[in-house]
Amino acid sequence: MHYLNRIVKKRIGLGTWSWGNKFFWNYKSANDDDLRETYNEALKRGFDLIDTADSYGTGNLQGRSESLIGKFLLDTPTAKKQKIQIATKLAPYPWRLGNRAFSKPFLQSLERLNNKLDIVQLHWSTAKYNPWQELRLLNNLCDLKDQGFDFQIGLSNIGPQRLTKLINYLAKRDHRLKSVQIQFSLLAPDLQKQYQVKNICEENEIDFFAYSPLSFGILCIDPDKDGNKENSFIRNVLFEIYKRAVSQAQVAINWCCYQGAIPLVGMRKKSQVIDVSNVFKWNLSRDEFNLLQEVSKTSLKKIPKNPFSSV
């Protein structure tokens, strides 16, 4: 795929927020075999990134997403394991204070993931309520790397101003960012700000991860089945491109890929992986992309902002 006058590899990540989440996604352990099938199919079809977090899993199931991935990794051949990246996010809870507050959570995540952990991300920025906290937590991650733990550092839910500051902060420790993930989709709020983050990532050769590329599934709803037609204009455009014999989900994800982003797509079924993997087989035309850009700009309703995202 061509992007910015160069050939880039189209990449898609498997998102696992729903794995263990009873409250929002009605997780049931009886469906773990479905999740194993989802994982295996994703690896089979070329997904090379799996994103999780130590907070994924509700109540006493906290960490469940990591544990499931770790269990599935045990049955994964070494050659396949070497081709994928496992990225987790550590939550900067208010009680995780000081230069060592991430040490124990990091080791717990590493254990749950059976020692396969390639990227460790700060789950959200604390800039709005305790700006010094995230600096100490990032310092903690630098210390862990200096002690010999082999992983790269990432950020999540970060704004352009804070991102620039944290890039410079890590540089003073002779470390750099591997990745940044933010909410990025056709219905994402404040896209102008998100593009500023994306530009900074490109300037600094940082991987740009797009979470919620399907806007919590809204972009997959058939506009003919939506009772409120006024709210489905953007999906009507997706549906028109869908007539190319591709799904609406593929169109929305390819909008991310067209721009060099790495979409993190939440999936729980093998069939979902099969559908999304078809994104690897086709690209949007320039005219189709421009049309999607226009309807995205003129869409009056967006999904809610993440309250933890910094400026």
Describe this structure in words.
The protein is α/β, with parallel strands linked by helices and 311 residues long. It has a single domain, classed as NADP-dependent oxidoreductase domain (TIM Barrel), CATH 3.20.20. Helices cover 40% and strands 14% of the residues. It has twelve helices and ten strands. The strands form two sheets. It has an eight-stranded parallel beta barrel with strand order 3-4-5-6-7-8-9-10, surrounded by five helices. It has a two-stranded antiparallel sheet with strand order 1-2. Helix 2 (32-44) packs parallel to helix 11, helix 9 (233-242) crosses helix 10 (248-258) and helix 9 runs antiparallel to helix 12 (286-298). The chain is globular and about 55 Å long. The model has no long low-confidence stretch (mean pLDDT 92).
